[in-house]
Amino acid sequence: xxxxxxxxxxxxxxxxxxxxxxxxxxxxxxxxxxxxxxxxxxxxxxxxxxxxxxxxxxxxxxxxxxxxxxxxxxxxxxxxxxxxxxxxxxxxxxxxxxxxxxxxxxxxxxxxxxxxxxxxxxxxxxxxxxxxxxxxxxxxxxxxxxxxxxxxxxxxxxxxxxxxxxxxxxxxxxxxxxxxxxxxxxxxxxxxxxxxxxxxxxxxxxxxxxxxxxxxxxxxxxxxxxxxxxxxxxxxxxxxxxxxxx
Amino acid sequence: xxxxxxxxxxxxxxxxxxxxxxxxxxxxxxxxxxxxxxxxxxxxxxxxxxxxxxxxxxxxxxxxxxxxxxxxxxxxxxxxxxxxxxxxxxxxxxxxxxxxxxxxxxxxxxxxxxxxxxxxxxxxxxxxxxxxxxxxxxxxxxxxxxxxxxxxxxxxxxxxxxxxxxxxxxxxxxxxxxxxxxxxxxxxxxxxxxxxxxxxxxxxxxxxxxxxxxxxxxxxxxxxxxxxxxxxxxxxxxxxxxxxxxxxxxxxxxxxxxxxxxxxxxxxxxxxxxxxxxxxxxxxxxxxxxxxxxxxxxxxxxxxxxxxxxxxxxxxxxxxxxxxxxxxxxxxxxxxxxxxxxxxxxxxxxxxxxxxxxxxxxxxxxxxxxxxxxxxxxxxxxxxxxxxxxxxxxxxxxxxxxxxxxxxxxxxxx
Lengths: 246, 414
What we know:
The complex is a heterodimer. By secondary structure, chain A is α/β, with parallel strands linked by helices. In chain A, 32% of the residues lie in helices and 19% in strands. A five-stranded parallel sheet of chain A has the order 5-6-7-3-8, with helices on both faces. In chain A, strands 2-1-4 form a three-stranded antiparallel sheet, covered by helices on one side. In chain A, helix 3 packs parallel to helix 5 and helix 5 (165-177) runs parallel beside helix 6. The longest helix of chain A has 18 residues, at 195-212. Chain B is α+β, with helices and mostly antiparallel strands. In chain B, the strands form three sheets. In chain B, strands 1, 3, 4, 7, 8, 9, 10, 11, 12, 14 and 15 form an eleven-stranded mixed sheet that branches. In chain B, strand 3 and strand 4 form a beta hairpin. The longest helix of chain B is centred in the last third of the chain and has 42 residues, at 268-309. Chain B is elongated and about 105 Å long. The A-B interface holds A 65, 68-69, 72, 74-75, 94-95, 98-99, 101-103, 107, 109, 112-118, 122, 125-127, 129-131, 175 and B 1, 4-5, 8-9, 11-12, 314-315, 317-328, 407-408, 410-413.
């Protein structure tokens, strides 16, 4: 066993995307809460290529939050499989899924993305901490991201809840991107913003993604925002749960 | 990083954390002080009788004899005759014997009639002898040697004179006015009841209880240069040191079976054990009460943590989103609880230490309690250990809640 030649690392997540690589690959997925026998979510097949920007359209109650939890690995599917970056993500231990989420998936919520009692910088540092990176480097990277997102460096030392909602959402993007994740999951990030701020936010988000070239899963019920995306997907048509019965 | 998050999270809830902290400080402080006082009380009793092999008095309970003869607590039931004393003081096995005569007082301090043997043979602490800080032991009938505290509190110097009162109350209506004593010596502090005792010669005790005419005659004799012989008829008790420990039980039996009068001899160590057993119940009661108070404050801590959980759902979702596992969430909650109780332990320790350091003079002065302010011991360490352990247990309630929440709710923040 000791003299076995070193095997190529198949689970290296930083490989450059080749045509057969997929960012997300969902197969025969079913999800039901343990104490219920009714499926909340059933997806036969859904694939997202690396670098693709998907506008995931869905009303609340369409299984949206369940899908996001499955994609980010905070919930395991009842049946089937979720592959992330060609890894059998949903079959890994929850510990490993947490690790992958920390390093390779950035998440931005509707609102309250930041821990209120921490400074803005600490909020970013917490994200870096779970991805295993420390040190001065983070501050430099954070400042660079802040510049991209048109955020003042002065905000770094402020308590997160002192920022406006628009600023908080932009800090949330910076936090999500600090570990240079391959996948960015964004859930209704503009619902708390007015129209002006919304457009500003969207163009900043798209700029950031242009530079990092990551896969973007953008969830919203606001069809207007679809204009920013080349690929549209309705959760309603994706989710087969409950169809047979009706 | 998690330390930082836990700390800032606590600081974010200053008021409720502060109140919980106060309640914990009080209860941990109580537990530490009860344990410390328990040790100190034992130590204080043990150090008072050291080197004495037997204590002999009139027949009574052995605890009673121990308490009134050595600790100046309570009163003798009866006196014993001088003859009995001489009989056993002259025994071959006896190395030394100190007669003790009690029953009078001076401004609230007990007066003890004895001989100069007392200053020579009495031991306290680690078999330490009594030291005269100033002056000498008594020469004449009306000489007195004061305990350190008596001299300090009442402001007596060598050569001052004082009057004894009959009985041991603070206020007495029968003062031995016509027979004042002169201070010839002041003892160094010992941290035992010796400090609170006025020592006079046995002859002096006999003399003050004589009729005014007899006292006048004695005084006149002293002035004319004679040494009037005053016979001691009774004493209260005597303390003995033996040549060899082996003889202790034989002598003990022969004293207890003495035909001349009913006597009781006790081994101070055995009597102390009986005292501990008696105090043990009180100690345990105090202990149980302070442990229960601690438990209730710990539940307060748990309640405080639990009450904040609902408003922290969003925070947990954010932590989950950036990659924290349920175990990390669990640890964060436990860490917060542990920080609170660690701070409580530290503050309680510091408060008690400084409190005792500042109050030790007052305690020994006003109550004769000699409390060592050094509370840093293995006991303290084990108390802190127990508090930390108990914190972990009550911390499980909110921590497991947060763990489950993190596991099932995932990124859902509502």
